[in-house]
Amino acid sequence: MTRVLLAILDWGLGHATRSIPLIRELCHQGCDVVIAGSGDSLVLLQKEFPALSFVALPGYSPRYPRNGSMVLAMATQLPRFLRVIRAEHRALENIIVEKKIDLIISDNRYGCSSRNVPSVFITHQSNILMPKRFGFLSGFVRRLNERLINGFTESWIPDFPENHSLAGDLVDFGTLRVRVPVKFIGWLSRFEYRGASHPRTDVLAILSGPEPQRTALEEIVVPQLKASGLKFTVVRGLPTLASIFNEDNIVNFLTASELQSCIESASLIIARSGYSTVMDMKALGKKVVFIPTPGQTEQEYLAKRLMQSRVAFSMPQDTFDLLTAIQESKNFSGFDPCGKNTLLAAAVKSVLAQARNRR
User: Fold this and answer.
1) Per-residue model confidence (pLDDT) at position 173
2) What does the pLDDT read at residue 244?
3) Total number of domains constituting the chain
4) Of 146, 144, 167, nearest in space to 157 by CA
5) Percent of the chain residues topping a pLDDT of 70
6) Which one of 150, 196, 289, 343 is most buried, by most CB atoms within 10 A?
7) Which domain does 14 fall in, by range?
């Protein structure tokens, strides 16, 4: 049995949630899966897969600014992030020996590559977008991203190529000199479309992301929902707290199965425009209002792209108005549900064959 180490970035919950279908596929193909990570993302996966093995890695624990420049805040944390990359690489080599790992799959953990076993890097940001006023940093960021990806055996993109892409410019390699093979593995969602449903709730708000912006979004959205007179549900995105609905129909956390039922029963979803959430909404064919995390260029780009294509309405966090958002969303199509993803199974089968041949 091939033993696979799956290393998950602790940057919000999206990297963990999109790993759920990958974990299912690895188990389906007979792998012994060990999950490595830190923070809430590791807790989420422990709740989803209690029978699997888990190991800790150093945490990135990014802090988003409540106000001010996101790029500046990330830049000041860059030395610490680089130290974490080195620390996770050292920890990884010990885990490989202790757990007898045959293959590593890293979802955006740059330090989780090894010369001793095949290692795959998953990213939807081969092209890391920079705000215009920080464009002078683009070359440095691109070269650093390029060097780190080249430390892996191959790179996987959780998207479909060309006209079917959800990520758009985010997965444009452009001048990036990546020497390793690159594979598109299709959209990764923990949800599977079960057909049209009959909504029982007007609005479902899904809160997520690093603090303090997760709390900031909650403080803006929840009071407006309570004053609206609408039937609503709020999922706070806090997996370390008890998963019990309070009297206002607000819950800290739901498993994938529970959350899918809530999404299916809602007429409209309010959520961040993180790529994992976009894939989830595509999987279930939902109508969504996106609120990108302020200053996070990836989310701002995706929200703008989907709004321009008339798929989903979006509003900035600081000017968000619930009733306006609901009214405007009527002019947008919502997502069409996607079909079965066969690219993931093929990519897993191929890399497992490589790992077995190297034994």
Assistant:
1) 65
2) 86
3) 2
4) 167
5) 95
6) 289
7) 3-188+341-357
208, 280, 322 from 274: Cα distances, Å: 9, 10, 20
Alpha-helix residue ranges (DSSP H) falling in 100-212: 138-149
Same domain, 172 and 275: no
Would residue 38 count as lying in a domain?
Answer: yes
Instruction: For residue 98, give the CATH number of its domain.
Output: 3.40.50.2000
Could you tell me if 245 and 351 lie in one domain? Answer: no
Q: Are 259 and 195 in contact (CB under 8 A)?
A: no
Structure tokens at 2: 């091939």
Residue that has been written with the tokens 């010369």 in this structure: 115
d(CA 67, CA 216): 10
pLDDT above 70 for 176: no
Write down the pTM of the prediction: 0.92
Residues 231 and 99 in one domain: no
Average pLDDT, the chain: 91
Residue 194 within a domain: no
157 and 221 both lie in a single domain: no
Whose CA is closest to 14, among 310, 322, 275, 353? 275
Query: What count of other Cβ atoms lies within 10 Å of the Cβ of residue 139?
Result: 11
Within-domain flag for 103: yes
Q: Tell me whether strands 53-56 and 266-271 are parallel, antiparallel or unpaired.
A: unpaired
Sign of CA dihedral 123, 353, 44, 110: negative
Within a domain: residue 87?
A: yes
Residue 12 region by backbone torsions, left for phi larger than 0, else alpha for psi between -120 and 50, else beta: left
Q: What is the pLDDT of residues 284-327, one digit of tens each?
A: 999 999 999 998 889 999 999 999 999 999 999 999 999 999 99
299, two tokens: 């989310």
| Residue of 40, 178, 31 whose CA lies nearest to 104 | 31
Q: Is the distance from CB of 61 to CB of 30 less than 8 angstroms?
A: no
